[in-house]
Amino acid sequence: MRAENPGSLKLVSTIVRDPQPAEFEALLERRRRLGLDLFDEQWGGVYRMNTAPAERHAYVAQQLAVLLDGPARTAGLVPMISPFNLGELGEYCVPDGGLHRELGDRVYVPTAALVVEIVSPGDDSWNKLPFYAAHNVDELLIVDPQEYRVHWLRLHAGGDYRPIERSTLIALGPAELGERIDWPR
Q: Could you say which DSSP state residue 177 is in?
């Protein structure tokens, strides 16, 4: 959970043990009713309340939508560089985008060919790797605007992700993609 103080951003973790108090359930319901839970996630037994990303994040996301569109379509994949629910009700992540093998109309998508995570200060992008492996996501694209760096990972036997120099899904790699991004300064 993020708490903002005037003049600074403070990251805070809050654990509410089961059974959850009525006040916490009321907070969740209020967030749902107001549409504030769009980026919330629930995985690894933890409910994570997330705010919408900052401008720098959205700026990079827009570029990724443009840069990944052509190569994805050429490879027969469906580009969706927009947040979506990967997993199922009660156990899901909300990546910043993905490349999919088919276009459906589901609220919860069971897997993706490639998932895009844009790193925000203090986020859980790198902690989601076991979740994505459990959902058979072939490749992960982790873009870090703070480091001006692109990490491209492929799922290997045994369920671990390892860096790759070129995607096995589309005609692109991390170095080339990183050079094409107009990094926010």
A: H
Least confident piece of the model among 30-34, 83-87, 116-120: 30-34
Helix (H, G, I), strand (E, B) or coil at 100: strand
The CA distance from 177 to 173, in Å, is: 6
Global confidence as pTM: 0.86
Kindly indicate the confidence band of residue 3, based on its pLDDT and cuts at 50, 70 and 90.
very low
CA pseudo-torsion sign 126, 77, 175, 83: negative
DSSP E strand stretches across the chain: 2-5, 8-11, 41-43, 46-48, 78-80, 85-88, 91-93, 97-100, 108-109, 114-118, 139-144, 149-156, 160-163
Count CA atoms closer than 13 A to 62's CA, side-chain side: 10
Q: Are strands 46-48 and 41-43 parallel, antiparallel or unpaired?
A: antiparallel
Q: Cα-flanking dihedrals φ and ψ of residue 80, to 5°?
A: -140, 85
